Amino acid sequence: MKAIVWHGVGDIRLDAETFEEERRVAAPEGNTEGGPWLVGDAPSLAARWATGMVAKAGSVGIIGVYPPGFDRYPLGVTVNRNLTVQAGNCNHHRYIPGLLQRVARGDIDPRRFITRHAEPLSMVDAYAAFDRRDDGWLKTVVPM
Question: Is the C or the N end of the chain the one with fewer CB within 10 Å?
């Protein structure tokens, strides 16, 4: 099987084996350091993609919670491409009022983002599963 990738100047022919090898390196099936994949195992990959995609002298924003051990940010690429980086946790207080208005108007349906429903009696177990980042525990609703 042959694939053609067009770069605008000419074309490069890649065979399926080359493509599969590149895919395996870029997106391995499992954790290459042993053990299972965990949530947050690939933030450095997202950072490399972001610094590679943005224009020179552009900006990259990082929102999230990163533990003290996260130290694999592509600093060399960032400096060499003269990028501006802004980072921090989400400013929930700023966005909640506007989001609530949009939900009330029907512009946004938050049910699309809810992955679990938990009963109040099982709240401790639900929080433990969410805290462990078990599969499917992204946003949880607890009826009161």
Answer: C
